[in-house]
Specification:
By secondary structure, the chain is mainly alpha-helical. The chain is built from four helices and no strands. The protein is 72% helix and 0% strand.
């Protein structure tokens, strides 16, 4: 038995090393499965970042309209949306989704 082990020593060690590297390639912290999970997390975070950036730009634009130089058209739009007011002889339709 010992003679066979000594004779196949290189084969046994190389088999265990190959199995070890194969399992670490697939699993583990730096493995292939972990890579795809991290890639998915990265894409979702980038989508959230893009949405938040667009929201910030929109709020900055609305804030600039309400600065020292008031934009009367924008204020009229805000009043119409919030208080449902209209001009004289104007019909207002409310569409609910």
């Amino acid at each position: 038995m010992l003679k066979k082990i000594k004779k196949n020593y290189f084969f046994i060690i190389s088999t265990f090393l190959i199995l070890y590297f194969f399992f670490n390639l697939l699993s583990g912290q730096r493995g292939l499965i972990s890579y795809f999970e991290k890639k998915q997390i990265l894409s979702s975070i980038q989508a959230k970042e893009l949405a938040l950036t667009n929201q910030i730009k929109d709020l900055d634009f609305k804030n600039s309209l309400l600065s020292d130089n008031l934009d009367l058209d924008y204020i009229e739009i805000l009043i119409r949306e919030r208080f449902l007011l209209g001009k004289k002889n104007e019909t207002i339709y409310i569409i609910k989704k």
